Amino acid sequence: MACHNAASPQAKLDLHTQEAALKGGASGPAIVPGDSAKSLLLDKVVSGQMPPGKVKLTATETDVLRQWIDKMPAAATVAVSETEVRGILQARCVVCHGSEKKSAGLDLRTMASRLKGGKSGPALIPGKPEQSPMYKRIADGQMPPEKQAKELAVELPTDAETEKIRAWIAAGAPATTQPSVGMDIEPKDREFWAFQPPKRPAVPTANASNPVDRFLLARLRSKGLSFSPEASKLALLRRAHLDLIGIPPTPAEIKAYLADTAPDAYERLIDKLLSSPHYGERWGQHWLDLAGYSDSEGFGQDDGIRRFAWRYRDYVIRSLNADKPYTTFLTEQLAGDELSNDWRSAKTASPEVIDRLAATGFLRTTPDPTNSNERGLLAERMNVISEELEVLTSSVMGLTVGCARCHNHKYDPIPQRDHYRLSAILQAAYDPYEWRSPNKRELDLAPEDERKEAETINAPIQAELKKLRERMADLAKPFRAQLLDERLKALPEAVREDVRAASATPADKRTDLQKYLATKFKAAIEINDRQLERKYPDYASQAEPLRRELEATRRKMKPVPHVRVLTDNAEPSTHYLLRRGDPASFGEVVEPGTPGILDHPALKPYKPEPPYPGSTGRRLALAKWLTQPNHPLTARVAVNQLWMRHFGRGIVPTVANFGRAGAGPTNPELLDWLSTEFVEKGWSMKAMHRLMMTSRAYRQTSKVDTAVTAADPENALVSRMPLRRMDAETLYDSLVSVAGRLDTKPFGPPAELDIKETKEVSVKATKDGFRRSIYVLHRRQTPVSLMDAFDHPAMTPNCTERRQSNVATQALHMMNGSMTWELARYMAGRVVDDSDGDRARQVELIYLRALSRMPSADEVKTGVEAIQSFKEAWPARLASDNSAAPRTITANWLAVANFCHAILNSAEFSFID
Amino acid sequence: MNKPRTRRDFFSSVTNGLHGAALASLLGGDLYARTSYDLKPQKPHFAGQAKAVIQLFMNGGPSQVDLFDPKPTLTRLAGTAPSRELSFAISNGQAAGVLMPSPYTFKKAGKCGMDISSALPHLAECVDDIAVIKSMYGEHANHEPALFLMHTGRTIASRPAIGAWVTYGLGTENQNLPAYVVLDDPKGLPINGISNWQSAWLPPLYQGTRFRTEGPPVLNLEPRHEIPTPLVEAERNLLRKLDAAHLAARPNQPELDARISSYELAARMQLAASDALDVKKESDATREAYGLNDPQTATYGKRCLMARRLVERGVRFVQLYIEDQIFDSHGNLESSLNYACGKTDKPAAALLKDLKQRGLLDSTLVIWGGEFGRLPMSQGGTGKNAGRDHGPNGFSVWMAGGGVKGGVTYGETDDIGFKSVENRVSVHDFHATILNQLGLRHRDLVYDRHGLSERLTDQFPARVVTEILSKPVVG
């Protein structure tokens, strides 16, 4: 109680009196009378969170507390407010009595509409609960009707909720609102560096032209260090290629680069790579990691496909290639739909409009189970919203707000209210009370050419389907008649013929009597295929092939092109702070807003305005707020992400947490200079790549000097470049590319997976080879085995930083997997073709393609000898396989393949100097 | 100042005078150095009783009132209509049936005299070694979220499975085998598929590895058959030479060392895994005991036997799944439960006896249970056709070995077995108990994610169920 008393209530909680404890603090009431299990106070004590420090309550003390709470009369509740009652009605009733549907003319959302009531008069009579239908019907169990509740995924009001409605009406139905119980933000909290706009520091004087180097050198010098020597020309070439476009240079590119002896050859290389269309394919994946992109819902065994998710992936790649300013890039992803309403009620749209809509896929990435009403309960919907919020805050804001869903943030000045302010921004697009399930998130809108293409392809298929259906019907006809006869026999003779006639008449042409009969004898006259199959094996055996044909034909249909989007409900439900995150514990009403800690005199506050009728403008306002040039987090978080990808570690190592529990910047001046430079360069990401990659820091060797590692063990000062293993996608794309099997076709629906009987998941080849990893179907349940082994993340919900493991299964995939061997054979074929039988030339070509360098004389010798010896083992094998292939040529080719296979497996291939 | 164990501890101990940023950067070196992970054995937080876990997951939700939790009241009230609360608990839109007693009889078994259903005759012989928790409760009546809850502690799809947490915390004893092995049913993946053993945001190497029960157990374990055998070895030798030269030119790069040794491990795994799963090496008596000669029990029996061979060799966590929600008895209760128990009862009991006889039970924690239980009333028909719907509010699981007391039951459900009412055990309590037996404190098994200490029990209160432990050591 030293902390929780009336004089200085920590977290606004006073535990000196029972009343005060019931009222509670920032996280809601501390005690739920009669229910220790639901009492926050006991929670905190049992879990050891409270009291802080070493001295905890003993088991006996805890038990005393538990018993005291359990024995409290449950009636000792605090007065119920209208806010809370509105929340209960919203959760349980308004799906039928609300904005979209007004069953029996009743709308339960406002005081006025409750008093007005519906067909059976007022729903609310203040002071008289027993005469108020809105209480009475719930208390009697009439409302909500169980069947509809099930269908709409509504849970029944609990007894406690029903009692609250009664108590509120009994108290005269006062229109009070609850006082705000937010956590105060102290002025001292605002001083924390990450909550202050970046200030452009002076560039230190040092002997370097690139300001990045000057900032780094200043710190290195203070430790008596300097940069490591520059890496070799070819090491840099390979590093830059893999870093910027994700595939190694070709022999021709190597040759051209070696021949370029101009002093700015490296700078021009960087420019060339930045303008490559492959740049967006490489850096797009980094962004998709942050967004948590996947082509599937990620829930349940079916792991449903998100058919048009790929438009978002394409949007990202195109935007990066176009070097769209980061501000535009963010705005379109948060609120592309709110930028204009030219898409509404249109059927076709320009690629630009489609792109802008598809961009909203950023907030549609998390695993989502709500397609079925059984799994679409409020709690699940809230989870989806909360995870979307996590994606947004971890990737763009460098803040952790997930914990504030249930309580005030432990380390950062982020009260629970701020979590709900942020989720209120999403409320109009993700309204948990009037939910749009995943299968309703597509707009029937597409580029003209795609629509035409689908129509052209589908027209003949539809004709064929129609024929097949007619054949099915013809086949079933006599069996149907037979079954109907049998069933009619069981009916009283008097009605038999009338029922038969009713059955034969189409539903819309039946007389009233026939309608009655059809309803009454529904069980007799409704016949489905399954029943026929069960009854008549003859029918079953004839129908089966037809059905299979029908199914196969149906599968040939091209899906009607749509866009997967995030758009607003014009009238979002009231948004509540949910105590302890519980969807049934309504706290104060919260308006959309941004975290209070980021209110700053230099920043324009968050202010939503509808861009057009039908959208709230909440997300657009967020985008405007985030993209202000002096926002404390936006530019910092973005440049830190870029820095981490280039240098292996962020200036703030905890890239997704710039808060107090994060690690803090190792070089704050550099971070702030880069952030302000980013803004000055028009938020150009390519300008930042250029700046970072042309620094001396980036060009350092990765060779380790033990004196340097002793002084800078974590490489926090960037005293060298880290040696790095390729990530999963770089490895996959590089394997395909050096083998000459890269299908460079960009964009569109993803490449399909090939799931073998062994459960190995690989990618189906196209006629031109293998598409890049970013264009492969990303399904959470069936990751590509090779990439999975190399730490491809599962997107739960997103991935702000890759982790790297070194395990034996990686070696198994590379040594024994079908993919590397197949690619080694392709590669060998090319090499043999290009080498005119010259072994040494073969070894050189393999080194050039795979390792981006020429082999030494020793390496050539080793390689030539290896291939020669490999060649000897093949003829016997070919003979025992009875292979018709020409022996000598085949053995020669496969021996080269063995050598390629070993090189692709070498550490040098998958590690980047 | 003592070195804080976790960031959370650290920040809880920060006094008002010392502020976050400076200290966080002081700590930075310590806490963020770890960017690379391996499976080397790690010291537990304290000396635990169990070294390994075998989880016999009973997909579908086994019916507690028909297996472990006899309810005479249910017999007395047979045929009466359920309350509104009960009838709303039926989840699939069918009208609720009537209160339905168990078609099975319960007998007192073992020295302890535990009540056990006639559906589980083999387990009845082992009751002196198991502790049944009768008061489990979950949060959700649907398979997917309930499975996530049982495996990850939350009903959402985004968190690491308990097996991943355990291997993250303890590594493994045998580097030639995966640390965390999943023996899923050859007939197909369970609901939620591979997410049941996902590492989520824990480093991917902690995810479960599926072992197939026929053919090579691990994907790509064996060299490609197209490549002549002598060339497999010749290629490996060449690779060793190339890598050695590469490494020699790059001293002090631990990542490169690790990668080269992983290739050596891969070669050893080929032998180790094939050996571990070769049940032909077992005696006829053992094979018979596990039911390998009976088509009804053969596939599950084989996996139970494999599980024993795996923990014997130092694998940390083995998870067994059973076909197609076999315990999901929506209709034909008796025949459906007979089928499920017929497949699993004998092998599971054989596993317990076998572990015990080999002295492995003391160090192996065996867990049996599904994602929820079932409701006391009927559904989907009458008489023999009737089944039971999902019941997350009260259900039974059992544990054995690894320091768990035998011959005891813990907790109670209400008179009809709908809700657990006495000594209730949450899924978090259940998880904390499993971790505790391995010497891991659930509050200290943390992973730094976005600067926050994540843990299996999240921020939920959780207590170790000491009442079922032979030596109630709580770390």
Chart the SSEs and their pairings.
The complex is a heterodimer of chains A (913) and B (475).
Chain A: H1 18-23, H2 40-46, H3 59-71, H4 82-92, H5 111-116, H6 133-139, H7 146-151, H8 159-170, H9 187-190, H10 211-222, H11 233-244, H12 251-259, H13 265-274, H14 278-291, H15 310-321, H16 326-335, H17 351-358, H18 378-397, H19 416-427, E1 442-443, H20 448-489, H21 493-504, H22 512-520, H23 522-525, H24 529-535, H25 537-556, E2 563-564, E3 576-578, E4 586-589, H26 618-626, H27 634-647, H28 668-680, H29 685-693, H30 706-711, E5 724-725, H31 728-738, E6 742-743, E7 753-755, E8 761-763, E9 770-771, H32 785-789, E10 804-805, H33 808-816, H34 818-835, H35 839-851, H36 857-880, H37 887-905, H38 907-910, E11 911-912
Parallel strand pairs in A: 6-9
Antiparallel strand pairs in A: 1-2, 3-4, 5-11, 7-8
Helix pairs in contact in A: 4-8, 6-8, 11-13, 13-29, 14-15, 15-17, 16-26, 20-25, 21-22, 24-25, 27-28, 27-29, 33-34, 34-35, 34-37, 35-36, 35-37, 36-37
Chain B: H1 7-13, H2 20-32, E1 36-37, E2 52-57, H3 64-67, H4 72-76, H5 84-88, E3 106-109, E4 114-117, E5 130-137, H6 143-152, H7 162-170, E6 180-183, E7 209-210, H8 229-248, H9 254-276, H10 284-289, H11 298-312, E8 317-320, H12 333-357, E9 364-369, E10 373-374, E11 390-391, E12 395-400, E13 408-410, E14 412-413, E15 420-422, E16 425-426, H13 427-437, E17 446-449, E18 452-455
Parallel strand pairs in B: 2-8, 2-9, 5-13, 5-16, 6-7, 6-8
Antiparallel strand pairs in B: 3-4, 5-12, 9-12, 10-11, 14-15, 17-18
Helix pairs in contact in B: 11-12
